[in-house]
Every structure is written in C-alpha cells, then in structure tokens.
C-alpha cells in the first residue's frame, strides 16, 4: 500500500531570515509617551533585529514527486514577496504592506501572511502558519483570520 | 485595509528558563523500587536540569499598540509566579504547587499552567500552551484541561 | 487538588536523529529529467543528511508515575523501528518501508508514522505528530491520515 | 592534591546579546558609491541585527570561591559599559566609542574590547577575547592588539 | 600529494552532556555568608544543570584510518571516566574527584581534565581542551596547567 | 584615537554548510574488515551528513571599509572552491581533492584548507582555521601544517 493515500495531509515548513530596522511608536504621541508605552523599542533613532521566519504550508503530497510543494519554489516566493521587501530595510519607512501600521511582530506576521497567502494558494497548497521570531525569547505565530 | 481585523487571533510566545534540582520517586517505594521504576532519575541525592519554558498566549492584537500583550508584562508574570518559585530551587522540596506531586516534566508543565492561567486571563488574553523542555531530547506540552 | 485530573491530555516529545544517504528520482525518468524535476537532489551518486526527528505522543499522565509514557520506552521503540532501519543507511536501497517510494521528506515522515503508530498505541498513548527536519531550513510534519 | 594549583589558568566566558540598528557607509561617498562598496548594508534608512556577544576572560581560580571571576560581576560590567550603550540603539549615531568609525562588526568588536579591557583588569583577570556574531553566518573575534 | 603529511596536527572534539545537582558553598560559612558570596547558587537544598561538555584532543591523523582518534573510543572514555560519575549525580556528594572541592564550573572543568588527560595520552593523542557549559550564558575552558 | 591601529589583528568567520554522501573504508579491506575498523560508517551503500563549515581568516581591518575582508567575497570563494564540489555530492566518488583519500572529517578539513588557503592569501588575509562539524557531537579543526 503506497504511503500517500487519498486525503493524506502533510505540513512543510521553510525557514528564512531577514535583518531589518524598526521602531515601535505612534506618530501622534510624544517621544515621552512612546517611551512609556513601548519602552526602549520606541527609540526614535531606530534599532533592529535578525528576524527568523518559518512559513508552513499544508497539502497532499504529489505522488509523482513525493512533494507537497517544491520547497525551492516556496523559498522563491518568500524571497520575492517578503525578503526583498524586508531584508536590510527599515520596516516603518520602506515596506509597502506595513505603511501606516505599527511595526510590531504581530502586525509583521499578519502582513507576511497577507503577502504570501494568495500566491501559495495558486500552487495548490494552503498557507498554514507564519511563525516570526524577533529575538530568541519573543515569537509570534499567525494562522490566518479564521 | 488595516492588518488587524475583527477576530484576528494571534499567538505570542515568551521563552524563559530556570535551573532546578529534582528527583523522581514515590515515598512509599524503597530506593530499589524507585530505581526500577524511575531509573537514574530516582537518585536520592538529587540531580538537576536547565529547564527551557515557552509560554504561549493568544488574543487579538490591540490596534493601539499592535500587541496581543506586552511580552515584557508576560515575562514579569512568569518571573513572579514561576521562576521565583523554581529557579535554583529543589522542585520536590521547595515549590508550593508541586508539594505532594511527582516531579515529572508532565506534572511541572500542568503546575505552571495552573499558576499562570488565571493571571494571564486577567490581561485579556488566553493561555494557549506551556512547553517545557527538560533536556534537548525530552519535551512536554500542555494545552489545558479541555 | 491533584495536578492530574480525569481527561488531562499532555503531549510529550522525544527528539532523535539519524544520518542517511538518499536521492530523489523516478526510475522511469532519464538523469536529465530527474535533474530538471528534483534538481541537485537527484544526483545518481547520492547525497545525505543528518535528519532530526521529533516524535510526539499524547495521553493522560499515569498518576503512579507522573508520566504520559516513559520517554526511555518511547526512545527504545524509535530506536528499534526507525533508527535501526535508517541510521547510516541508504534510504532508497535499504529501508523496507520506503521500497518503491520516492525518498522525499514527506514520504519518510509518513513512513515513520506507519512504523510507530501501532506500537505506540499498544502502550496506551496516541501518536500525535512526526516532525522530520532534513536541513535546518526544511521541515515536514505529519499528524496521521485524519 | 587540590584541583587549583599555582599558575592554573582557566578561561570563562559570558554570553550576552543586544539589538541595534546600523548602516555601513562612508559619509564622503555618494549613496551609489556606498552601495557599490557596502552592498545592501549601506541602506541610508538603516537596518539592524540581534548581536550575540561572548566575552572571555582568563585568570587563576580563587581557591576561596572556585571562581576565576564571578560571572555575575562580569555580566554587570558588560551591561554597564556595553549593553547600555548599544542595546536598542543606533550604532552610528548614539554609541560614544563608535563615533567617527565605520560600524563594521570588526570595529564594534575592537570598540567593545577597549571598553571592557581596563575594567576587567581591575578585577584581577585578563580580557582574552571578544567574539561578536552579527548573524548566524558572520562572526568576528578580537584578542587585543598584541 | 597525500592530505596527511608529517607533523599535520588536527584537533577533534566530542560533545557530550550530563545532568547533575550541585550547590556552591563553603562548609565553614553560615547559610547567610554563603548566600552573600554565592547568591542563589548556594541554596542548601540544591539546584542543577544540563552541563554540555566538549572534549578536544589533538594529534596527527593515522594514514590507515584518516582518524586522529576514533571518536567512538573518545566517547567511551568520557562515558566511563566522566559521565558515569557525574550524570544524574550530586556533584558535591557523589563525585570522587570533586570531594573537598568547591563545585564551581572552573573546578569541574579542571577535574574532568585530570580524569581524562592520562587516558587520552595512552591513545597516542594529547588532550587539548575541556569546554564546559553550565548554562547557555556561562562557559568555562581549561587547556591544562601549562 | 581610531579603533584600528597598526598591527590590529582581527579574526572573521564565515559559516556555510553542505549535504553529502560518503563512506569510510579501505578498498583493500573486505566489507567485514571495514565494518570492524569503521563501524556503521563503512556501509557500502553510503550514508550522509549535513556538514557545517566555519572558515576563519585573520588580518588587519582595512580602514577604508572597516573589514578584514568582505565576508561576501569569502563566502563566494567557499562557494566556488568547496561547496560546488561537495554539496549534494558523493565525497568518495566525485570530489577531486578527496580522490584516493579516506573520507574522514579530518581529511576533509585538511582538503578544504588546501583548496582555500592559496586563494584567501591572494585577498591579503591569512587562513586561520577550518572547523568542520559532521554531526552535532563530532567536530574537527585544522589550523594548517605549522
């Protein structure tokens, strides 16, 4: 009996990373108010992170390849729609899908989901999770607006 | 269209760690019986671990901050209710919520959940998971008594 | 009130690893076709990986031990049914449950599930997840054919 | 015979981390010239990193404590002289010992050495190495100007 | 020209780990004095760690095997002389080479060196370094009493 | 006083990885003899690893760039001379500088040194170390034939 049967759902994850600058602040607040709400993350002269991104998609493996989706293809999608926009960039000033948004890890994870979800679907699989690690101690996961 | 919509559920995780001593044993067993059941973990003179703890909460990001919950606040809760009780302590002898319990990783994860769940809820979010790593090869996860 | 109550479900994970050779190819394709579909992974002279395996089972902790299942027992099962077959082996040529299958990480994860699921059940717990990491950037998860 | 003998030299290392923004550029260059020399690291709108710092000191363990130096004391020195200046800061604009310097990892490691070396010596030990990791793939080590 | 030439020195490292209980204290001090000097590490009821040990030996590779030393042999030596004594033990109470010594990481590294150095030499290689990690942030290295 | 002074020596490291197949054996031995000497690493049907490579060079930082050497250039050298030859290849059968050599990690590290050393020197820096990790527990370092 073959390993892949009708309805066999498998989850595959690609890990990528990008290095960006950002700050947490509301423009209508004074620097003092921003400091009170966002702490040192509100520094007006910016700080930055090595973000680690895990993108998980799910689907039935293709019996012809054994792949849910070629991870090279998934990596290329992430490269084009996410890393090109974020890597070595200022999240507050340069990233189209973050314009007007607070540059929190939560919002960034939602924004990355919105970027990737329609494209991933075109490849016949479903986006399952965006996992975004800002530091070793702080991790955000988003599974779509279900 | 803003990234945060009605019902947008996001999961955030804080990683912490603590170093404790413990042993696995039943007081009504002899040392030989404890050795047979619990192996070298039953050593009456104790051993210990660097435990790694991931606490995951879920909720809707606050549009005013972009945060599900300030991770600094979550870290402070864990510090006060979990790390102060466990770090550099003897789990069998010094931890109030483990009194009378076997000091297994499973029980420790449940105990940490019970400590944190009511407090986390007061901050308007839900505790989703306690992930407790005793060694690199042994991990326990608890998602509440559902 | 004891930590373990009726219906308390806990998840425990054992991490193991194995080092194997494999190649991705279809025997009815020429080397050129395999190269086009599977890239450098189709090298007819093989390549290999340090696979990292996480096996997660779930169940109610036994009040007598505090364990869902003795992780040593789980490790022994994985050793006997998975590592003995895969470690320092050629996945395409030497692994019984991969005969006639494409040696993709997806198929390997499904095959490991099929090997372990009946045995784990005999120990009174349920297999929850097979997580198989081929490289730091490529991860597959399988939760059974549900 | 005691473990610590005359002249027993031991090396101890404290790991710390900080998150900063920076850019690589020469002010007398145009943006195009900076891009050619420094690549995407020259982005005028900044980017950032989670830097990982290992500080190694060497000395003879104190027979009264078994310590070369209390690692808590070393951590406090690093906190005061390095992390307070660098964490959540802009390396080019806000760090006194980097003023007028290119914000390369090499220069940053030398600057951290200069900050710590005199202080460490006051505690009766010698600074041995500064190891600074900018990304998982890029590491700089400095052992002083010997 | 063969890769291994006369005098080609190569360093090989084996990583192992052990989980132990300990406390830092001087028996002639009161608990208050010990707390002042050793902080929470002086807890009279013990705490513990997952220690990570790297043992590095150096020598000329054997042209017949390509090995400086069979790492399986080195691992067996470490198992017999170090891990059997330390793993799941109380360092202060149960480890012969630590009797009467402060259970600091420095002393433990020196003690492990003394255990292994004569045995390693019998295999025709030289012990180069003991690297002992008590926590992710605290590391000790010892290169012998040179 | 500038950070970079005459004779300031700094060490920079680039981390790369490759996935290869190999076996340890001597062609003049029978399979039984090879099994006795090399254990399961002698499997005639190959096995493989995710090798992790750290290449360290040393030199004086260039005051014009703050770089010892552009790590992108170093990465390109490693790509061309090492990874193209080793990644997704069979070390015994396909790697020119390993022909006729035992495919031990020691020999592989020496071979990589020989590949890179002359090229690195052309860039005005010195090769300091090749660190090659075959598994998480087995590491080889080579510092040249000094």
Question: Which properties best describe this structure?
Answer:
homohexamer, 146 residues, alpha+beta, Tetrahydropterin Synthase, Chain A, 4-stranded antiparallel β-sheet, 4 helices, 4 strands, 32% helix, 28% strand, elongated
The CATH homologous superfamily of chain A: 6-pyruvoyl tetrahydropterin synthase/QueD
Q: What can be said about the biggest beta sheet of chain A?
A: 4 strands, antiparallel
Give the overall shape of chain A: elongated
The poorly predicted ranges of chain A are none
Strand arrangement in the largest pleated sheet of chain A? 1-2-3-4
Oligomeric nature of the chains = homohexamer
Describe the protein in words.
The structure is a homohexamer. With about 150 residues, the first copy, chain A, is an alpha+beta fold. The first copy, chain A, has a single domain, classed as 6-pyruvoyl tetrahydropterin synthase/QueD (Tetrahydropterin Synthase, Chain A), CATH 3.30.479.10. In chain A, about 30% of the residues lie in helices and about 30% in strands. The first copy, chain A, has helices spanning about 30-40, 70-85, 90-95, 105-120; strands at about 10-20, 45-60, 125-135, 140. Chain A has a 4-stranded antiparallel beta sheet with strand order 1-2-3-4. The longest helix of chain A is centred in the last third of the chain and has 18 residues, at about 105-120. The first copy, chain A, is elongated and about 65 Å long. The mean pLDDT of chain A is about 95. Chains in contact: A-B, A-C, A-D, B-C, B-E, C-F, D-E, D-F, E-F. The interface of B and E includes residues 90 and 136 of B. Strand 4 of chain B pairs antiparallel with strand 1 of chain C.
């Amino acid at each position: 009996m073959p390993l892949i049967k009708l309805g066999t759902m498998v989850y595959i994850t690609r890990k990528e990373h990008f290095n960006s600058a950002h700050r947490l602040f509301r423009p209508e607040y004074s620097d003092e108010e921003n400091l009170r709400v966002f702490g040192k993350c509100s520094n007006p002269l910016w700080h930055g992170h090595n973000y680690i991104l895990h993108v998980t998609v799910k689907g039935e493996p293709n019996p012809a390849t054994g792949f849910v989706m070629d991870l090279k293809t998934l990596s290329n999608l992430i490269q084009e729609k996410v890393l090109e926009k974020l890597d070595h960039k200022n999240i507050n000033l340069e990233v189209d899908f973050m314009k007007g948004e607070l540059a929190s890890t939560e919002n960034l994870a939602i924004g990355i989901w919105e970027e990737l979800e329609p494209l991933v679907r075109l490849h016949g699989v479903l986006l399952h999770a965006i996992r975004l690690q800002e530091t070793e101690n702080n991790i955000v996961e988003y599974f779509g607006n279900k």
